[in-house]
Amino acid sequence: MKQAIEEGFILDVLANYTTYQTYYELNKEVADDPELKTADAKRQIAQQIDLDDQNIAQRTKIIIEHFRKHVMSELGNQAKAMVIMSSRKAAVKYRQAFENYINEHHYDDMGMLVAFSGKVNSEDDKKEFTEASMNGLPEDRTAKEFNKPGYRFLLVANKYQVGFDQPKLSAMYVMKKLRGVNAVQTLSRLNRICPPYEKTPFVLDFVNDYKDIEAAFAPYYTTTLLADTVNPQLVYNLVEKIDGFYIIDPQNIEGANIILHKAKIQSRDKKNLNFYFGATEKKIEELDENSQREVLTTLKHFVRCYEFLLQVSSLKDEELQKLYNYVSYLMKYVNISRPGQGYDLTGKIKASKFTQKKTGQHVVGTKRSNPVVKLPMADDVVLSEDKKKKLSAIIEEINQTTGSNFDKDVAVKSMLQIRDLMMKSDNLRSSAKNNNEHDFELSYFDHIDNMLIEGLEHNKDFFTLLLNNNDIKKEVLGTFAEEIYKSLRESKVKQ
C-alpha cells in the first residue's frame, strides 16, 4: 500500500482524517433498577443513541454542509461521497433526514441513493422500506445510477464497502465502528485516483478513534509479502517446504478432495475426512513447539499466497489446487470464542442535549508503518460478555452482511442438531466435570469444526459458511457454550 501510494497508483485515505465525538446526557426512564450485563447495555444504548432524531439531525447538518463547502466542487464539480451507516434502520432514517434538510435549504443539486439488503419496517410497522422503493429503481442499478452527475451521496449499510470502484468518491462520512481488515476495505473505497483531476480524499468519522484506524492500516501500509513478492514460484517454494515437513500423506490429499467435491457427503465420508485431517494434526503434534509454529505459519502462508495469486493470475495446476483444498480445511482445525445474555433496554432510557464536537484532524505525514502481520493461527480464546442473541436474529444478520439467503428456521434447526452432537461428546462431558466454565469453553471451541464436518449433511451450505468464517462461527455456536457446560456438568453429577 505504501509503495502504491508513493508511485501514484492509489491515494492515501488517511491523509485527511477528521474525527467527531457525540456528547449527550442520558437518563433512566423506568422506576426499577435492573441489573445489566455491561457490554450488552452499552451496545443497546449505542444503538438507541445512533437512531435518536436529534442526533441524526445534527450529524446530517454537519455532513451536508461540510460536503457543500469543502468537497462538492472537487473533480470539476463531480465529487461524490459515501456515508457508512451502522444499520439498515439508520440508513432509512438518515435518508429521510437528508431529504428533509436538502428540501428545507432548497439545495437542488444534492441527489442521494441508499444501499441495503432486505426490508426495514417503520417504527409504527405501517410502512416497509427497501433499497429499490427508496431509490425508485431496481437494486442492480444502484451503482450505475450513482455514477450519474445528479447523485452526490450514497448511504450504505453493509453494502458497497468491499470491491466498489467509483473514482469520483472524494469523501466518506463514517457512523459505524470499523475494525481490522473491514476498516481497510471500507475506507479504501476512497483510494481510487480520478485522472485528469487531482483528488484529495477526506474522511469525517463520528465513531472511530483515529489511532484504531491507523493500527488497522499498519500491517498493509508498509512493504509486505503480498505487496511485491508473490509469484507462482514463491507458492511452489512453499509447497516444497510443506513437503519437507512430512506431515501430509499424498493419499490423504487425494481422498479428501474426492469427498470435498461430492454433491452429497455421507456419514462415512465425514469420518474419513476426520481421519485424514486428524492424521495430519497428529503428525504436527509430534513435532517440538518451534517446529509446530513453523509448520502452521508455512501452511497459513501458503493459503494466503495461493488465494492472492488466484485473484491476479491464472494458475492451472490441479495438484496445487488439491493441496490448497486440503490445507484450507486442515487450518480450520483451529478454534475460538462467543457471546452472553442480557436485558432489553428499549424504551427504558432517554438521551438528550446532543453535541457534536470535533476531536481530531489528521493530515499527511503520520507515521504508521508496522510490517509485522499477525497470522490468524492458534490465538488465545477471548470470551466476551455480550448478550446471547436469539439464533434467528443472528441468522438474519448473517444474511444481511454476507448477502446470503439462509432460511432462519432451517438454519436454527441445524444449529440445534449441532448442539445435540456436542451434548453427546464424551470428551466435552469429561471437560465439563473437571473444569470451570471458562476452561471448558477452550475445549468446547476446539471441538466445533469436527462437529460441523460431522453434521454437514444437515445443512451443507450453512455449515460450509461457518467453517470458512471464524467470526460468524464464534457468534453462532458461542450461543450454546454456557447451556452445554451446565447440562453436561449436572448430568455427570447425577450419575
What does this 3D model show about the protein?
This protein is α/β, with parallel strands linked by helices and 495 residues long. The protein contains 22 helices and nine strands. A seven-stranded mixed sheet has the order 3-6-2-7-8-1-9. Strands 4-5 form a two-stranded antiparallel sheet. Helix 16 packs across helix 17 (408-423) and helix 18 crosses helix 22 (481-494).
Q: How far apart lie the N and C ends?
A: 60 Å
| Low-confidence runs of at least 5 consecutive residues | 23-30, 223-229, 334-354, 365-389
Main beta sheet, described?
7 strands, mixed
The value of Rg in angstroms is 25 Å
In what range is the share of β-strand residues? 5-15%
Q: How many beta-strand runs? A: 9
Q: Could you give the order of strands across the largest sheet?
A: 3-6-2-7-8-1-9
Briefly note the structural class of the backbone.
alpha/beta
Helix share, percent: 40-55%
Mean pLDDT, to the nearest integer, reads: 75
Shape: globular
Count of discrete alpha- or pi-helical segments spanning 4 or more residues: 22
Secondary structure layout:
Elements: H1 2-6, E1 17-28, H2 38-50, H3 53-71, H4 74-77, E2 80-84, H5 88-104, E3 111-115, E4 119-121, E5 128-130, H6 131-135, H7 142-146, E6 151-156, E7 169-174, H8 180-187, E8 202-205, H9 210-221, H10 225-228, H11 232-245, H12 250-260, H13 267-285, H14 289-312, H15 318-330, E9 349-362, H16 391-402, H17 408-423, H18 426-434, H19 437-454, H20 460-468, H21 470-477, H22 481-494
Parallel strand pairs: 1-8, 2-6, 2-7, 3-6, 7-8
Antiparallel strand pairs: 1-9, 4-5
Helix pairs in contact: 3-5, 8-9, 11-14, 12-13, 12-15, 16-17, 18-19, 18-22, 19-22, 20-21
